[in-house]
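Case study B.
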Amino acid sequence: MSLNYDLHTHSAASDGTLTPAELVQRAMAAGVDVLALTDHDTTEGIAEARVAARKTALRLIPGVEISVTWQRLTVHVLGLGVDPENRGLLDGLAGLRKFRDWRAEEIGRRLARAGIVGGFEGAKELARGPLISRTHFARYLVAKGHASDVRGVFSRFLVNGKPGHVPGDWAKLDQAVGWIRGAGGKAVVAHPARYPLSRSKLRRLLMEFAECGGNGIEVISGSHSRDDFFVMARHARDFGLQGSVGSDYHGPENPWIELGRLPALPDCCEPIWRDWHERRNEASA
Ligand code: AMP
Ligand code: MN
Ligand code: MN
Ligand code: MN
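Model:
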């Protein structure tokens, strides 16, 4: 019997809206068998998710989604099956959160210059955990009527060339892969079809990723089209990378993405979970 995998999700420890325990409950109800919690630049939600999963049949994979700057573009690298207490990983993520904290204040200052006051305080208040993401700014600005939805806030205020955009460097590609591999995890390029990259530039990224020890790419993603699935499956094969499956769930407010509702990995892909042991949470916690 094939299991239902969802290996890319967020909790309130980053920019998701459910607590880690609520996320685990919802994944169970949705029929997910194997769930990875992959918050942005933090492993803080994993302890709570593990407790919630421990007495259930759901297998929790400790994960993280690391912000990376590659050729001046932000790309996301998932770590799946990491030790959330690994020192090298924790130190690396702490450095990224330091930049994130400064960036949040700077976004607030820049929005204020554009006539929108209280953005930093508003975003901080909406963030239920210790990490402030642009998503929190977007939710606050929607609540204040500056745009009708989160997507609209991004395009009008938060992306390159807009008043609240703050440039800066996240981790380097090889650093992120190194932290993940050093913590015993597998490194996976998240939603590869979403980056504004030409086909050849994306292939360059995947080649460098494979060369520095990356393991896989998200072939099936909540933000991929059906065509993307097949293009990415071919890239995976070409670069000797395994395939992964993840919704990129952020919460029930976003009704078009649900946990565990993704198509199966194409047969030509070697799954990222191929050599995962069939242990239960109790054994691996
Ligand atoms: P950050 O890591 O703080 O820069 O925020 C990145 C997060 O913002 C992503 O993980 C998405 O959840 C969200 N995001 C980025 N771009 C958009 C967009 N155009 N529309 C909606 N959400 C977005
Ligand atoms: Mn996010
Ligand atoms: Mn992402
Ligand atoms: Mn994500």
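The beta strands are 5-9, 34-37, 59-70, 73-80, 186-189, 216-221, 242-246. The remaining cases will be described in the next quarterly update.
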